[in-house]
From TrEMBL, chain A:
It comes from the Bacteria. It is a multi-pass membrane protein. This is Branched-chain amino acid transport system permease protein. Coiled coil: none annotated. It comes from Planomonospora venezuelensis. It is found in: Cell membrane. The chain crosses the membrane at residues 30-46, 52-71, 78-99, 105-123, 130-148, 179-199, 230-251, 257-275, 282-299, 305-326.
UniProtKB/TrEMBL annotation, chain B:
PANTHER family: BLR6548 PROTEIN (PTHR47235). Keywords: Signal. It comes from Planomonospora venezuelensis. Belongs to the leucine-binding protein family. Gene3D superfamilies: 3.40.50.2300. SUPFAM superfamilies: Periplasmic binding protein-like I. This is Branched-chain amino acid transport system substrate-binding protein.
Automatic annotation (TrEMBL), chain C:
It is found in: Cell membrane. It comes from Planomonospora venezuelensis. Keywords: Amino-acid transport, Cell membrane, Membrane, Transmembrane, Transmembrane helix, Transport. This is Branched-chain amino acid transport system permease protein. One of its GO terms (cellular component) is plasma membrane. It is a multi-pass membrane protein. The lineage of its organism: Bacteria, Bacillati, Actinomycetota, Actinomycetes, Streptosporangiales.
């Protein structure tokens, strides 16, 4: 129990936090269909650079979707998801490079690998909560680059590995970046669907119960440890898949790509986007991709300043993240439209 | 609860259907897009070559530097480059072309380097990428540069692979490779202390390993022996433990293959341990005014490094017109930079080399620049040390391969001996050393 | 044997630094239940303040108390401006806010003082000439200061009126508030004290590691490990753990072949995981708060 809660200075639970599941936006299907159409049309309307940027947003979005499973659904904190990204990326680079496996095989392979690793590393989740899990995962993130360098025979060591980029099949008539974008978009859609299914399942309801009241959940027969470990593994799998796509998009992996900074920034993006919302990962990824680049015009140190400031302000002023703000805005618009 | 699940599933199906429909609609459009085309020369001897980013009176150049993050000390390179381009533009530009220099920040992360370079090439439509910093970022970008056929010239990293790699003809190095630098130290030891024992402290990354391997190669079959080695990670707080270990070897020479912070720590420990007094060789990357200011004079036997460019802080060059122009322009165009910084001087000198390459283009095209940087014939640069010039040729992608030794005495560096041309002494760098 | 001694001495001097930062982490956690990931960066900021004062010509032992005062005030300010707004939020909110602070402070320091390495004067003489252990004097000085800080905290908690008030707040905030204690002010004081201890750690570490904005990045993991071993509550165990970690990592880097210098950083990870998984005590304190 937090001290501040006992002293009575507790923020009132409102909106989704208080269990409000009313629909704020009356046209979800139309909006989703429009979004899907825009997403599919984008690569044909935009310059290659913008397509690349969108692809990166989707890749980060998949990673954040996984992180949200741990952070938003299970109420735990991971400062080490960069490690799973590294696993996925290196699996892809090694499997398609030296081992010569075809692309379609690589994705499930790295998903499987990172799932297994997440299951193994998720064991701490059996016993740890909150900040303690954060400390352990932070330490994992710190150890990853030296470990990659240690096994240089496989990983290329500190020099990194070139990962081959999937090229568009000739029958499609697409440019490579368009093909890659559509590929990543398809994976992202599948990932989103899978996450929603997971949350709507028995397991998802168990997680919600654990998050809201662990003691009550346990009394009702929910096996807390098993569920937490499993969700950690699922989350690791998402990060691993994102890592594989990352290797395809960037075309190069090196230990410096997966430093502790990446893990920290991922968590920050999850919180800024909104950890408990389907729109959160996408907004977090947009934050991750655009804010540092946009802030750079203001000066050399500005990206860090702005990113840090945005995180603090969002957490202080809008605990539900950008997605929460979007929801509020959508609600306001819908009400106004409804009144007319 | 069941209802929500079924609803979610239905929604998902609807979305999948919509996505498939949209995809089916747009697929026939494949390949075509509403984006601009790259510039191509249509007539004359240069027909068919790319002229994006270059016009009769301007040329647009992009650079990606670590302005934030762990390696941000190298951000000062950008200041030196900016100052030189400002200086050139004030003098009428290169062959009448003003240089427009766009700087982006990659935070020393390879993924961001790729993103920023794509931004430079595809959005800003630069003519060439003049400088990526660090081996990871450069290695990450060069595949893209080769695919897009954009020159990635004079990258700020001494890894030996840029010069020997034929698969990436659009990427070329600049500074003396780490292997070349290691050879200079090896040569010095072979001549002055043929039976020396050496302890090596190196950073566990491409740079540290390249230099260490180069050194081990160069002293093979000689009386100089490596008796102890310790590595450290950039993320380590300190190298005190490593130094204690090396001290126990009692070696005659300490080769410190480090970046500035760790070099300063190594100096401090060397000064504090009075029972071990090796000759302290520090690689040129680590030498910065702040690091050398921290050295306690008299407590370290001898400090040696290798140099190839003029040092603005050195009274020897106080009246040198080239260094004078550097100081003045830096003050005008990049006042935030410290003129004594090696990095700013590095940027200035490299920018000068780049301008010389631009002047030597036969065609004002990307292909022309690529040919020009591979055809440098003892081109002088006035802020390089006398006797050191830029030379490249077919199969030789190392513009600078000569260095001089310098000793740190009475608070400043004094060069000594002759210019060592490592190519003449050791032959060409054959292959990139193992990473 | 002399080699081993030298290794141990170097390990201790690093360990004292870990212990100092870990003490600050423990302080904040005891008062506010927050694991402050920005503690290292705040300490780095304090060290820059000290450096600025020294650079202006102030003698070391005059600059030191001024730095402490500025840091305590700064810590209280951060608590008042930022932390108080998120108190009562979940663990996630708290961790995220300190991570945001970490990124912000690091960039701000880079903006003001640039990322160039700066040397920092050592308040203790470095060499005495006793063979290989001479650099131990500096380590002893650092150790001594950390011990003094630890004792001072102990005395403050146990034997002063202010300490009694603090303990009351920690033990039962609601009753403390009902008894007329300004709980918010005490929490602010906790952050201020922690920032002060962090400043001490920073000033002590700067001559050893050299001053730059990323100076504390590598220290944080070790300090967190030490704090975990101390259960985030016991200052004495925390200090001992910090010292032990410094020595263990140094020795493992030298004598355990598989670890080597490159995997030294895995030592704190192993320690954290072992400490949290084997004895249930620490894990329980984490889970039952």
């Amino acid at each position: 129990m937090n001290i501040a809660e006992q002293t009575g200075r507790r923020r009132l639970a409102v909106g989704r936090e208080a269990g409000d599941r009313r629909r704020v936006w009356p046209w979800p299907r139309v909006t989703l269909a429009a979004l899907a159409a825009v997403a599919c049309a984008a690569p044909f309307l935009l310059t290659p650079y913008r397509v690349f940027q969108l692809t990166m947003i989707l890749v980060y979005g998949i990673a954040l979707l996984g992180l949200n499973l741990v952070v938003g659904q299970s109420g735990q904190i991971s400062l080490g998801h960069g490690a799973f990204l590294a696993v996925g990326a290196y699996t892809s680079a090694v499997a398609t490079g030296p081992l010569g496996l075809p692309y379609p095989v690589v994705l499930p392979l790295s998903a499987l690998l990172s799932f297994g690793l997440g299951l193994a590393l998720g064991l701490p989740a059996l016993r740890l909560r909150g900040a303690y899990l954060a400390v352990v995962t932070l330490a994992i993130a710190v150890v990853v680059p030296p470990v990659i360098k240690r096994f240089g025979a496989v990983t290329g060591g500190s020099m990194g590995l070139s990962a081959s980029v999937p090229s568009a099949p000739p029958w499609s008539g697409l440019a490579d970046d368009q093909w890659l974008y559509l590929l990543v978009l398809a994976v992202a859609a599948a990932a989103l669907a899978a996450a929603r299914n997971l949350l709507a399942s028995r397991s998802g309801r168990a997680l919600a119960a654990i998050r809201e009241n662990p003691a009550a959940a346990e009394v009702l027969g929910v096996r807390i440890a098993a569920h937490r470990t499993l969700v950690f593994a699922w989350s690791a799998m998402y990060a691993g898949v994102a890592g594989t796509l990352y290797a395809w998009v960037v075309g190069f992996v090196s230990p410096d790509s997966f430093t502790v900074t990446l893990s920290i920034v991922l968590l920050a993006a999850a919180v800024v986007g909104g950890p408990d919302s389907p729109a959160g990962p996408l907004l977090g990824a947009v934050f991750l991709t655009f804010v540092p680049a946009a802030a750079q015009g203001a000066g050399d140190a500005a990206p860090g300043l702005v990113a840090g400031l945005v995180i603090v302000i969002v957490v202080c002023a809008a605990p539900a993240g950008l997605a929460g703000l979007l929801r509020m805005a959508a609600g306001a618009v819908a009400r106004r439209l409804g009144r007319e | 609860m069941r209802g929500t699940g079924a609803q979610a599933a239905r929604r998902t199906r609807a979305r999948a259907l919509a996505a498939a429909a949209a995809l089916a609609l747009v697929l026939p459009l494949g390949g075509c897009r509403l984006a601009g085309q790259d510039g191509v020369v249509r007539t004359g001897p240069c027909a068919g070559q790319q002229s994006t980013g270059i016009t009769r009176d301007a040329v647009k150049v992009g650079g990606v530097y670590p302005l934030s993050g762990p390696a941000s000390a190298y951000g000062a390179i950008a200041a030196g480059v900016r100052a030189y381009f400002g200086y050139v533009n004030a003098g009428g530009g290169v062959d009448g072309r003003r240089i427009e220099f766009v700087v982006r920040d990659d935070g020393y992360q390879p993924a961001r380097a790729v993103e920023e370079v794509r931004r430079l090439v595809e959005l800003d439509e630069v003519f060439a990428v003049f400088q990526t910093v660090g081996t990871p970022s450069t290695a990450a970008v060069r595949d893209y540069a080769a695919r897009r056929r954009v020159p990635q010239v004079f990258v700020a990293t001494g890894a030996s692979r840029w010069g020997t790699d034929t698969a990436h003809p659009w990427t070329i190095g600049y500074q003396p490779s780490y292997v070349a630098e290691a050879r200079v130290y090896a040569q010095h030891l072979k001549e002055t202390a043929p039976q020396a024992t050496v302890a090596v402290l190196y950073q566990n990354d491409d740079f540290g390993r390249d230099l260490r391997d180069g050194f081990a190669d160069a002293v093979r079959d000689s009386g100089v022996r490596i008796v102890a080695e310790q590595s450290y990670e950039v993320t380590d707080p300190g190298v005190q433990g490593q130094l204690a270990n090396l001290a126990s070897s009692g070696a005659d020479v300490l080769l410190s293959v480090t970046t500035p912070k760790f070099a300063a720590q190594a100096f401090a420990v060397d000064a504090a341990v009075t029972s071990w007094n090796p000759v302290h060789i520090v690689n040129s990357v680590a030498v910065s005014p702040a690091v050398m200011a921290s050295v306690e004079a008299g407590k370290i036997r001898e400090i040696v490094s290798a140099v190839y460019q003029k040092n603005a802080a050195d009274p020897e060059w106080a009246d040198d017109p080239a260094v004078g122009a550097y100081r003045e322009s830096l003050l005008r165009y990049a006042p935030e930079a410290d003129p004594a910084s090696q990095q700013a001087m590095f940027g200035w000198t490299a920018a000068q080399a780049f301008v010389k390459a631009l002047q030597r283009m036969e065609c004002p095209t990307r292909e022309g620049l690529r040919a020009a940087v591979h055809r440098l014939d003892e081109v002088p640069v006035d802020t390089l040390l006398p006797g050191i010039t830029l030379s490249t040729g077919p199969g030789d992608g190392f513009p600078i391969e000569s260095m001089m030794l310098a000793r740190f005495e009475e608070g400043r560096w004094t060069s000594f001996g002759e210019v060592v041309d490592t190519r003449a002494v050791f032959g060409p760098v054959r292959t990139a050393s193992a990473g | 044997m002399a080699d081993l001694l030298l290794q141990v001495v170097q390990g201790l001097s690093l360990g004292a630094v870990y212990a100092g930062l870990a003490l600050a982490l423990v302080l904040v956690h005891r008062f506010t239940g927050i694991v402050n990931f920005a503690q290292g960066e705040l300490a780095m900021l304090s060290t820059y303040v000290a450096w600025q004062l020294l650079d202006a010509g102030m003698p070391f032992w005059a600059a030191f108390p001024v730095t402490l005062a500025v840091s305590v005030a700064g810590g209280m300010l951060v608590e008042r401006l930022v932390i108080r707004r998120v108190e009562g939020g979940g663990e996630l909110t708290l961790v995220a806010v300190t991570v945001g602070l970490l990124i912000f402070v690091n960039a701000a320091a880079g903006l003001v003082w640039s990322f160039a390495v700066r040397s920092f004067p050592n308040p203790f003489p470095t060499a005495l000439g006793f063979g290989s252990a001479q650099s131990g004097f500096s380590a002893l000085g650092v150790l001594g200061v950390v011990a003094v800080v630890m004792l001072a905290l102990h005395v403050l908690f146990r034997h002063t009126g202010a300490g009694l008030v603090m303990r009351a707040v920690v033990a039962d905030p609601v009753s403390a508030r009902l008894a007329g204690i300004r709980v918010g002010r005490v929490l602010g004081l906790g952050w201020g004290l922690a920032a002060g201890v962090g400043a001490v750690a920073g000033v002590l570490v700067a001559p050893l590691l050299f001053l730059e904005p990323n100076m504390m990045g590598g220290v944080l993991v070790y300090a967190l490990a030490a704090a975990v071993l101390g259960g985030f509550r016991d200052p004495v165990v925390t200090v001992a753990a910090g010292l032990g970690l410094g020595v263990a990592a140094t020795l493992a880097g030298t004598y355990v072949e598989f670890v080597g210098a490159d995997l030294k950083v895995a030592v704190p990870l192993l320690v954290i995981v072992t400490a949290l998984l084997l004895p249930r005590r620490a894990a329980e304190t984490a889970g039952q708060r």
